[in-house]
Each structure stands twice: as structure tokens, then as C-alpha cells.
């Protein structure tokens, strides 16, 4: 069985979707992500996950393919589209369904009972395969295409929801059969349950070439992903994320954008590098060795930062007089208790 997972990635991959997909992966169930929207966010799909987004060319191919090969299915989906005025959902569903057909999808799951369930419903008609949906609270009160969404929920094989209150509402207000609605509570995925023992390094600097982000990402290649993670605060014209992708170090960096002073203080307290205290660790030596080999001018690791800067919490700016990458952090290496005791 191959599952088509319909969702929105407008702000990256939501953490609860990621946890569900990791569970599918652990159970050896193949899946493909069909995202109605794709954007940046704190979580991204794993490199080996297949992700599809809306594409005009795929839409045209899907419309022509289903019209010529499966005219009855096409006519049924088109009839529902006209009746409920679901043209945008129909065009997306045609593109997704044709790709699902090529990959042998046998089950469709929509996460969220808004437009995603309508896309899943129309795609299931075109493919003649079952579908299910996960409902959260905000969809229950939304009036957007309520009649069409109600029909889509009734025609689904299973409706999952995250709380008993939602289940009661679906049965009472949406007239769903109690046997169809299952409470599936949100829980922390395995990744969230495991504490990240890697050293946490905080970088605060504008995204410009002189800050040395090229040196940063190349130096990260010399250190295993199991030993370090880098939190990057800032913004600007330089595409640092592209540099990280090219260097293949995305599993070692987290892009946080420009943050408020309060959040910057939290990050300073939570990270493991610097904060007015020199490092005496093998990781610092490895970092310096990697950095100097790439850029001779990086003669010394920045061990502290001006107190006035931390209090001001300058949004996405580096401290006055900073050189290459401005790297700040707090005391202690939590990832290695032996090193902590030696400080």
C-alpha cells in the first residue's frame, strides 16, 4: 500500500505531520507528500521523502489523461466540482491524482478538513480509491464550503480527530457515524522525546558575504552532524540556506530568521558556545582547525560578546566590530558531561 498524504506546507512541514510521517516510515509504509502550498519553516521533509506541489503542466496532463482514459470518473468529479463550485480544488486534485496513479497510490489521507479534504475527495473519485482525513478544532467552526466538506467527511472511510470534544462535535453537528470517527491524540514523536545531545552553537549576523557564512558551512562539513547543531539568527541579501544546501549541511543548521530581543536572550541562555567563557574542548579545536584551513584570517574564535549588545537584543544584527561570523553562546557543553565537569 502506498499512501498519498495531502497537506499544506505553507510554513514548512508541521511538526505533528512530521511525527505521523516518521511513524509511517518506521512501519515501512511508503508514502508521497502532496502539498497544496510549500514554504519555509522550522521543519522540512527528509531528503528521501517524495514531495509534490501544484504544477500547471501536471494539471493539464491530468485533466487530459482522466478525460480520455477514465471519462466516467472524470465526469463524476467534474459534476461535483460544478455543483459545489470547487474549481481550484479540482485543478489541484487532477494534477495530484495523475501523479498518484503513476506511483500506484492505493490510499489518500488528508490532514485538515478544509481544502485538503476537498482535494482528497476529488482525487479519490478520479482514482477510485478510498481516503481518510484528520480533523482539528478550527475546521469544525469554519463555514468555508461547509456543505461540500460535510459530504466529503461522510464519504470518507475514516475520520481521525485529536480530542474527544471534536469527536462529539463531528457526531452531533456533522451527522457522522460514531463508528467512523476515531480520536487519535497528538503525542510527541520519537525525535521530540529524545534530547538533542549535540553542542548548540548560535550565530547572529547579517546575511552578507563579509560575515563569512561560506567559511561557516564549509567548516561544518568537517564536523559530524552527530556532534553539533548551529542556530542561525539574521537576514539579508545573501542566500545562506542555499550555501548550506550546496555544502550538504542542512542537518546541522536551523534558520531562525530575525528574532525579538526576548527570544535572543532565550537563545543565548540555551546554546552551548561562548557567552564570555572560553572553551576548552576538542570540539572547539576541531572547529578552529576546520575554519582556519578554509580562511587564514580566522585566527581566533570569538569567545565573548559586548554586554550592551545582548541587552539591546539587536534584531538580526551582529555585535559592533564583529569580524567574520559573530558566534555567541552560553556556558557548558551539555552534550558531554566529562567536558562540563572540566570547565
> Which strand-content bin applies to the residues?
15-25%
Provide the domain count: 2
Number of distinct helices:
15
Count of DSSP E strands? Answer: 11
Order of helices and strands: EHEEHHHEHEHHEHEHEHEHEHHHEH
Summing up helix and strand content along with how strands pair, one would put the structural category as alpha/beta
Lateral arrangement of strands in the main beta sheet:
3-2-1-4-5-6-7
> What quaternary form is this?
single chain
CATH superfamily of the largest domain: Glycogen Phosphorylase B
Overall helicity: 40-55%
Low-pLDDT ranges:
274-281, 295-343
What fold name stands as the CATH topology of the largest domain? Rossmann fold
CATH architecture of the largest domain: 3-Layer(aba) Sandwich
Radius of gyration: 25 Å
State the end-to-end CA separation: 54 Å
Per CATH, the class of the largest domain reads: Alpha Beta
Task: Please provide a written account of the structure.
There is one protein chain. The chain is an alpha/beta fold and 343 residues long. It has 2 domains: 181 residues, Rossmann fold (3-Layer(aba) Sandwich), CATH 3.40.50.2000; 148 residues, Rossmann fold, CATH 3.40.50. The chain is built from 15 helices and 11 strands. The strands form 2 sheets. A 7-stranded parallel β-sheet has the order 3-2-1-4-5-6-7, sandwiched between helices. The protein has a 4-stranded mixed β-sheet with strand order 10-9-8-11, with helices on one face. Helix 11 links the parallel strand 9 and strand 10. Helix 10 packs parallel to helix 11. The radius of gyration is 25 Å and the shape is globular.
